[in-house]
Specification:
Helix content is 6%, strand content 53%. It has 338 residues and is mainly beta. The strands form 7 sheets. Strands 1-28-27-26 form a 4-stranded antiparallel beta sheet, with no helix packed on it. It has a 4-stranded antiparallel beta sheet with strand order 2-3-4-5, with no helix packed on it. A 4-stranded antiparallel beta sheet has the order 6-7-8-9, with no helix packed on it. The longest helix is centred in the first third of the chain and has 20 residues.
Length: 338
C-alpha cells in the first residue's frame, strides 16, 4: 500500500475511535463479578463461554476444567474436570449431552448435562478449539486450529463421521440453522462456508481489508455475518448468501468474541484491551457504531444470555509490564447488563 494511503487509513481509524469514545454506551454496565477460583495445573487459562438458555446454565472453559454456573444467580453448580486444556462447549438439548474440545489432547469429550459426568472421549485432531452444533444436520462441528481441519461428529453415535480439510487454521464458527456453518479461517483471511448436509466447503469469502479473522456472529433473519479480525483490528459485515462485504469498522486490538442480539439487532465485539464495541443494524445493509463499554484487560471472550440479554465475559488479574500474564486463581466472570 502506498505511504499516503496508509496515512489516510491511520487517520480514519483514529478519528473513528474518537467518535466511538463519545458515543452512547447503550446503557450497559457491570452488574456482577463472579470469582471462579483456581483450576488444576500451574497456568491460569480461560477460553469460550456457552450459555444454555433453556436449562439456565453457563459453561466456562477454564484451563483443565469446565465450570458450570446457574445463569440466573451465577452460583457455581459444578465442575467438569480432567482436561489438558478446555476450549469450546456445545450443547445438544434433546440428547442431554454436551461436547467439549480439548486442544492439547486433540479430542472432544462428551458429558451428561444432568450429572456433569464425562461419558466418552472422541479422538479428533490437535488444537481442537471452536465447536458448534448445527440443528439442520443434527451434527457437531469441532474445528482444529493447528491441524487446519474440522471434525464432524454424530452426537447420537458419538463418532467422527468425516474430517474436512480447511487449508488454514480455523477459529470461531457459527451455524445459520439452515444447513450452513460459517467459520473464520485465520490463516487464509477468509470466511469458510460449509454445507452441513454435503459436508463440504461450498464458498470462501475474503474479509479484506481485514486479516486474521477470529470472532464471528450472525444475524440469521437478515442473513448477515459479522467477522472480527486482529490484523488490522476490524469488524466486517458480510452478506451470508453472496459473501459481499457491506460495512467495515475499526475496533481495538485482540478481539476474540462476538455475539448478536436478534431482538435489538445489536452486534457486540469483545477485545483483550478491555473493550466491548457495540454496533446497531439500521437496516440489512447498514451498521452504525453505538459506542464502547470499558471492561477489564484480558476480557476478550464473551457470550450473551438470550433471556436476559446480559453479556458475560471472562478475565483474570494480570501482571504488569509488556508481557502480561494472568495470575493463577484470579479468573472471574464479568456480567454486563442494561
Amino acid at each position: 500500500m502506498p505511504i499516503h494511503k496508509s496515512l489516510c487509513v491511520i487517520v480514519i481509524v483514529q478519528l473513528s475511535f474518537l467518535v466511538l469514545g463519545q458515543s452512547s454506551k447503550a446503557g450497559y454496565h457491570l452488574l456482577k463479578t463472579v470469582p471462579l477460583g483456581a483450576a488444576a495445573g500451574t497456568n491460569e487459562y480461560f477460553d469460550y463461554l456457552t450459555v444454555d438458555s433453556s436449562d439456565r446454565r453457563i459453561y466456562v472453559a477454564h484451563g483443565s476444567e469446565v465450570k458450570v454456573l446457574n445463569a440466573d444467580d451465577f452460583s457455581i453448580i459444578g465442575t467438569i474436570p480432567g482436561f489438558n486444556r478446555s476450549h469450546g462447549i456445545a450443547i445438544v438439548q434433546g440428547l442431554n449431552r454436551g461436547f467439549i474440545t480439548d486442544g492439547e489432547a486433540g479430542s472432544v469429550s462428551v458429558f451428561d448435562t444432568k450429572s456433569l459426568k464425562i461419558t466418552k472421549v472422541i479422538k479428533t485432531y490437535p488444537d481442537a478449539d471452536g465447536i458448534v452444533y448445527d440443528s439442520a444436520s443434527k451434527l457437531i462441528f469441532a474445528f482444529n486450529g493447528d491441524s487446519k481441519n474440522v471434525s464432524v461428529i454424530d452426537p447420537v453415535k458419538q463418532v467422527v463421521v468425516k474430517t474436512i480439510p480447511l487449508g488454514g487454521g480455523p477459529e470461531q464458527p457459527v451455524s445459520d440453522g439452515q444447513g450452513r456453518v460459517f467459520d473464520n479461517n485465520e490463516e487464509r483471511n477468509d470466511v469458510v462456508v460449509i454445507d452441513t448436509h454435503m459436508l463440504s466447503i461450498v464458498k470462501r469469502w475474503p474479509v479484506a481489508p481485514a486479516k486474521e479473522p477470529v470472532a464471528i456472529a450472525m444475524d440469521k433473519e437478515r442473513r448477515r455475518v459479522f467477522s472480527a479480525s486482529r490484523g488490522p483490528s476490524l469488524l466486517v459485515m458480510l452478506d451470508a448468501d453472496t459473501g459481499k462485504s457491506l460495512e467495515t469498522f475499526p475496533i481495538t486490538a485482540g478481539v476474540d468474541g462476538a455475539v448478536f442480539d436478534p431482538e435489538s439487532k445489536t452486534v457486540f465485539c469483545s477485545t483483550r484491551q478491555g473493550y466491548i464495541h457495540i454496533f446497531r443494524e439500521l437496516s440489512a445493509n447498514k451498521l452504525t457504531p453505538l459506542g464502547t463499554i470499558r471492561t477489564q484487560y484480558g476480557a476478550k471472550t464473551m457470550a450473551m444470555d438470550p433471556k436476559t440479554h446480559n453479556l458475560i465475559l471472562i478475565t483474570a488479574d494480570f501482571t504488569a509490564g509488556s508481557n502480561r500474564r494472568a495470575k493463577r486463581g484470579t479468573a472471574q466472570l464479568l456480567v454486563y447488563g442494561e
